[in-house]
Sequence to fold (110 residues):
Amino acid sequence: MAGVAQRTTQHAFLYHWLLNGCLLALSACELFDAAYFTDKLNIATQQIVANRYGVPHKTEPLDDGRTAWTYYRRGSITTGYAGSPKDFCKAHIPTFDRHGVLRESTERDC
Fold:
């Protein structure tokens, strides 16, 4: 019987670490995804960005001929030891020159 209990504890421990590893990998993907605009400055075009993220939530022509797009990312996360939920909203704002090339990227809270 002791062997069965030990294996069950080992399986629970392994499951816990695998689950945490998967969550860490997913959060790393999210961080990479948020950095996409910065990584693609002077490379990506409006077409490339639209193919990846779809139609922007908002577009704004700027006075100097550039165009700012806004993509909103909303969600909920659990914070603290008590696990209290917290909502968040981030606005990713890629700005394109008059030729449609990504030249600037900002991120801010909405």
About this structure: The longest helix spans residues 2-34. The two ends are 56 Å apart (CA to CA). Residues 13-32 have pLDDT under 50 and may be disordered. The CA atoms of residues 37 and 47 lie 13 Å apart.
